[in-house]
Amino acid sequence: MEILTKLEELILLAVWKLKEEAYGVSIYKHLQKVTGQKMSVGSVYFPLDRLVKKRYLKAMKGEPTPRRGGMSKRYYLLTDAGLNILNETKKVNDTMWDGYTALKEKKVRI
Amino acid sequence: MNRNNMNNPPWLIKSLLKVLAGRKSHYSYIGDIEEMYNEIALTKGVFKAKIWYYFQVLKFLTMYFYESVIWRTAMFKNYLKIAFRNILRHKGYSFINIAGLSVGMAVSILIFSYIRFETSYDRHHSKADRIYRVTLDADVGGRILNAATSNAPTAEHLVKDYPEVSNACRFWYNGRVTVNYKDILFEEESVFHADNSVFDIFDYEITKGDTRNPLVKPYTVVLTENIADKYFRDEDPVGKMIVIGGSREYLVTAVMKDIPVNSYNRFQMLISLETRNQRFPDQMKRWVPFMYHTYILLDEDADFKQFEAKLPDFVDRYMSDMLEAIGGSATFGLQPLKSIHLNSNLEGELAGNSDIRYIYLLSIIAVFIICLACINFMNLSTAKSSGRSREVGIRKVLGAEKKRLVSQFIGESVIYSLFSLLSALLLVKLAEPFFNSISGIELQLDYIMEPAFILSFICFAVFTGISAGSYPAFFLAAFKPVAVLKSKFAGGRENASFRNFLVGFQFVVSISLIIGSMVIYSQLNYMKKRNLGFSKEQILILPVRNLEMSSLESLKNEMMSFHGVLGAAGSSSIPGMDTNVDVFVPEGYSEANKHVMMAVRVDHDYLTTYGMELVQGRNFNQDTGTDLQNAVIINETAAARFGWDNAVGKEIKSFTNNELNEFQVQTVVGVVKDYHHYSLHKEIDPILIDYSFTEIGHVSFKLRPGMETESLVFLENKWKELYPDRPINSFFLDDSFNRQYRFDEQLGKLFFYFTLLAVFIACLGLFGLSSYNAEQRIKEIGIRKSLGAKVSGILYLLNRELLILITLANLISWPIAFILLDFWLSSFPYQAGIDVLTFLSAGALTLIVSFLTVSFQSIKASLMNPVDSLRYE
Questions:
Q1: B738 contact partners, CB below 8 Å, separation of at least 6
Q2: Helix (H) or strand (E) holding B144
Q3: Which of A12, B328, B360, B407 has a CA-to-CA distance to B434 between 20 and 30 Å?
Q4: Boundaries of every domain in chain A
Q5: What ipTM describes this predicted complex?
Q6: A58 CB near a chain B CB, below 8 Å?
């Protein structure tokens, strides 16, 4: 399997969470809410494009609205391959995080 | 408040985003950003929203560059590395490439600078597009006159009669005058009388004094800064009085900036035309003579062609009486100010103008020289291609697309040409003084450092690189990986025919240029050496002013007392100098059929001093009292024009004033053999030589050959003794006469040097190619030698192709050169002709030069011991 970058992983998850409402702004807002980080709108597009290219996501054209300066929305849907990679990533993550208890671990001194 | 307005993000940035997004499908991103923008604008205000928007775009940009550039540069770095390795590994080839290209570029940049300068004339005037000069086309008694001048009242009447003429001004050339301020005495060349309106029409900038009406009053003068500094140094010139022309005092009303060098009329001071109005009020109202340079300023919406069509009417209205009296016809034309320097060559021009044809010619040369350098690059890179075939094969096997390879190789040649650009700019800087001295102009190269030009030079270099590199790039990128990797692929031999074609082209260009230089040189030489009908050597001219007949005679006698002076004569004009034309009616013609002829007033020693021959009749005789009254001599052309077989004794009526109502009848006493009063650019015109002391402006001294310097010193000392208050400005006639060929000389020199450079570039390429060939065939030569071939045989083998190429190139270039040069020569009335020998010698010259170029390599190859070359097989 392919190892996703953290941002790719988060974006895939966000798309999964947002269901039909996943487009640039909503994904960005969701990420910002979850991570609490200020990020630029632009920074989500390149991972989004990569994910579409890797066929984990499918892009669909929505309806244009005046609030958007006449530009249409671009919705993203999780593909089967996307679901698969999420499952596998989760498995890897669980294995990796297994047994880790937050802040209790002693520092390792070398 | 308009909601829509509030909701629009900065449009400029938005369109930038659109450009960056590229694909339409990406527009939805822009929509996303705009949606957020609107949200922020509603909650936090437009200002914050805008700031946020800018910030987003900035981030977007950095992301864009990071994402797109980082992946491309990885390969790019590799290309760059390979390119530099190649440049360093083949130092010889790289040097030839860069040297050829940089010389070619330097020539192009120089020619570009020259053209830029020549086409910049008078463009600095803000109204230059609307300024036109009124010109005259006249036909009087069969003499066609195309002059740059018009008559005095025209300017005023044009403004009065035609609403589209918003202003007009006149310049009147005053000729050489003496100027005194206190005890300082100077002679100035470029002094004009002008209307005050020149300051409204042209952008002459007044730095001191009356900025509005400096030339309204009579006896006022405006100085240029240069002249003002010369006379006044630290004093303030404004309000001072200077004496012009020996007696009258003029008030300096203003000082103006010096006229830029790229100006048609570079006067040094302007005297108000009002001065002439006051002194000669009648003359200023007459419609003859045509002595004023008149400029008009048209309205912004006026069409000059339409207006020009109204001028024949104007001439009819005011000048029909005058034209009828003369018996001629005339009309006015208009000439845009900006085209005067390059497109005008009329009578009465103020300056030796350039010619648009030279500009074309030089541009063509620049293009050819760049082509030659590009061909070198193509030939050498395709020849060397076998060396790169492995690299191409490996790259292709590893997945390089053809497109990528092409751009790699084009990129390499762009690197070469950028290097060349750098050294070309250095070369230009080094060659500047040399170029200035042969072209006779002050090139202004400061512009090169302007960002716009740096950018355009880089574009030029990139373009050169692309055009030089595209053929080799496609050639190299087309290699089949299996073929090049499997077998020893000798890529160099297969396209030899195309290479030969390119080398042949180089030879055609070089040979044509060589023939061109030779023919230009021989024409120039012919014009300078041709017998003019008088001897111009060892004649010293002394300009004089207001000399009475008696003082002229005493001056001549004083000077003749020195044994270095063989003869002396006074005259109104000298050969090579603009000479006035007068109106005559020869015997046998009616009053209505007047003739216009050049008229020179001379004393009785003129013909002998100049060594002019008489074919009929006699010279003027000092002792018969009547000669001074009524004797004239005409030239053969004039006699032929009047249809006189035996001209001696015929009478000519010559008109003595501009109204054409007073005349005196004169008798022809002799016919002088035709001589060239002007340069050989012009055919010989009818000339009337009048025995008169009224307008003597020059004294000519014939000096004993070999004693020029002593005589000059004697003359100057004597002059200072006789006229301590007059400056001396003597010059030699051959210098001043040959100045008419100044332009041809410059062209010839420029052409010669560019030819030299073209041949140099072609040789450079040939050298590279021949050394490559010799290297390629080193084994073949080794085998041939071990089998008993002689050195001469090997030399023949190596140079056979070259011989055939040069012969072919000669056969092609001869007719081309002949047609072009024949066309060029046809503009000269007296032609040196094109010698067959020129062609043969140009061919022989190329042959010799190219054999010298290749012989170094081929001799080395043929003398080589076969053991050395075959050792490793």
A1: B528
A2: strand B143-147
A3: B360
A4: 1-72
A5: 0.71
A6: no
